[in-house]
Amino acid sequence: MTADLVEVDGLAVEFPGAGGVRAVDGLSFTLAPGGALALVGESGSGKSTVAGALLGLHRGTGALTSGTVRVGGTDVGSASARELRALRGAVAAMVFQDPLSSLDPYYAIGDQIAEVYRVHTRASRRAAGARAVEVLDRVGIPGAARRARSRPHEFSGGMRQRALIAMALACEPRLLIADEPTTALDVTVQAQILDLLHELREEAGMGLLLVTHDVGVAAESVDEVLVMKEGRQVERGPVGEVLRSPAHPYTKALLAAVPRVEAGSGVPRGSGSGGSGAVPAPAPAPSPPPAPSSGAVQGGALLEVSGLRREFGRGRDRVVAVDGVDLAVRPGDTLGIVGESGSGKTTLGRLLVRLLDPTSGRVHYDGREIGGLSERALRPYRRELQMVFQDPVASLNPRRSIGESIADPLRAAGTLDEAGVRRRVREALERVGLDPDRYDGHPHEFSGGQRQRVGIARALVAEPRVIVCDEPVSALDVTTQAQIVELLRGVQRDLGLALVFIAHDLAVVRQISDRVAVMRQGRIVEQGPVDQVYGAPRDPYTRRLLAAVPTLDPDLARARRTARKEPVPL
Amino acid sequence: MIRFTLQRLGGAVLVLLALSVLVFGLIWLAPGDPAKLACGDRCSPAQIAQVRERLGLNDAVLTRYADFVRGIVAGRDYSTGTGVLRCDAPCLGLSYRSDRQVTEVILERLPATASLALGAMVIWLAVGVGAGLLSALRRGGVTERAVTVLTLAATGVPVFILGLLLLMIVCAYLRWLPFPSYVPLSQDPEQWAWNMLLPWLTLGLFESAKYARLTRASTLETLAEDHIRTFRAYGVGERAIVGRHALRGAVPPVIALSALDVGTMFGGAVLTESLFGIPGLGKTLIDGVRVIDLPVVTGVVLVMGAAVVLANVVADLLYAAADRRVVLS
User: For chain A, which end, N or C, has fewer CB atoms within 10 Å of the first or last residue's CB respectively?
Assistant: First the structure.
């Protein structure tokens, strides 16, 4: 009857079992051929479940599905196994989030694409191999014929994602379903992948259903957005409209929580200033003010490193993770460190709190050189130099109560009696906004954001003077992320801490930092006050990073995409 | 790869050296007079003294150990009273009982042990991997339950009970086969196979249980991985998913464990060999212990150790070959 590519009507998916979850609850939408729709929502909103339902992937998993789903004319709910297989890959193809685990580690990439192609076309082995090379070439893999013989682990993250997209393209589907296709990637690579998706749509007239938690990614890629919360639609409309003037309070809150690189200052955006996505990007003005070029903050630095270097491995396998870094943090100051994966920022963070020994260089803390101290000599400093880790799940012992985990640094110091320890832990819990009576709760009883609060409490309880946070919010949803950033800011202000905030997300770093250092391949390419680095970046790499950050303004995104096209991206 | 192999082989030599010290020390500490044992019951004290001199038992223990190691590396000469007996490298000594070279005895017994181990491996790979795969694919069904019960039962039954049961049923009641007696492969391949059938089945079925469980676990693990979901989402049929992708992921641990097990069995599957009277290394060891033929015991233990150490190296190499992501270093 209609020519819609996707019709979803009253879709509900329930995962039975202990505390059975209704992941999707009465969702309806359509997607016209060649259209692009983003399902946007926080984790647990049911967006990925919808994507799976379009291909009937919940069949045989025990999930209860109701409502109708039609894709390219096939009723996914009632289709036979054979019809379903014909749909999958040929009519609608899915690009998964984690490109490494989504490919079979044992087979060459070209063979995996060829296998999918042969399933749907009965082409000869040779023809399928040729097709694999063709699509790999199309998605911009250099030397596709040779690289087709590589196994997934021999590809970089961005290349793997391209390979997955190539697999999706192999049978020329009419619908591409992309489930968080860029979440695992660095911003510059993310920009390339989003550009690629765009080109493919324009070229082949493919429909795109994008599933993402990142509003910016949606703004860059689609015509329409559907905001989901707890399995239901909250708001739906053209992307520009929804992002500029959201109608629903949830959408407003979501947008307000999104940190921005374009913001005029490091001041947090309160709720209500939500829709200011149209601020133009910083002009890459190459007019450097006479700012200090070395890392030294004039006077009063609590923690200062110079010529810091750290190598791993030896001989041919030697890697220089940190390569001559100069930095300084003052009490009451927040230093942001941004960089892409592999830039050495985590190693740097661990060197700063002396969890790692530097290969060479100086670590000056509170007027003393601690770079070369032995573990024993470092002990008095351990309490004052604390760290908050990225993964709040992995960095808490699941078998111990959170109170006990927080108490560890106190017990290690050994200066307080049992009652004193307990009192201090309760104070720390209160300070980070957790109920002190949950002292005896175990990590699994807490949400991701709460666990990160526990991690912060553990750092605070020892009354440190320096806290290094390594990607403290990258595992969290935007709204939670905003709360944690706010908490860190408050703690830092009240206690006058020197805070080092390490992240790959330029917007979050801008939000919290006073000064910022941009890291690349173990070196600091640029550092200075936040407004200067973001407003008038001097290093070309900084400019490239900033230009790759997704904007919330679809028009601006389009303009930037055109600009990016000029110098051909790798 | 080559560097890794050489390094590991170097390590193996060290392990074997340590093992030889241990065995040598244990035997030196053992009560009893080896010369008396070697000479027999009706020897006069003079004869015993002569034997002691001939075996070098009057030397200090360190000298004896040095002689022993030198014998392995370069060979050594024994005086027989009337002449000199040359024992070529690798010389593991002379048997107290027969005056035969231990190396010769071991080489003579090795084929029987090898036939048993390799044949059993074929059985456990076929039965164990097959059963494991089947139970992984028919999860929740009768097949799975049956396989689980059988594997548990097989693990619980000691190998000599299993062997006895097979002997009783197949040879005594059903009379499908005569009671097996070992026939060397070189003599009559057909007879060799028929006579080895029950030992193979005994050892193979016993080990199958372990392999069924391993295969089941690693297949289920692979089936739960993301890349399997990818191929399902691209319309690849279930048979190809299992045959090409799931099995491929399940195989490397099976191969690695097989290499280890075969290595251990090369040192002699003592119980099975004794039960079926297979003249392999295990039986040699038991016999050696019974008559306190110390050079034979030392030699066999060293060879067993060497087999296990080598099997470890081979297992690592096979694992790396099966999974190219593994970098050996």
Answer: N
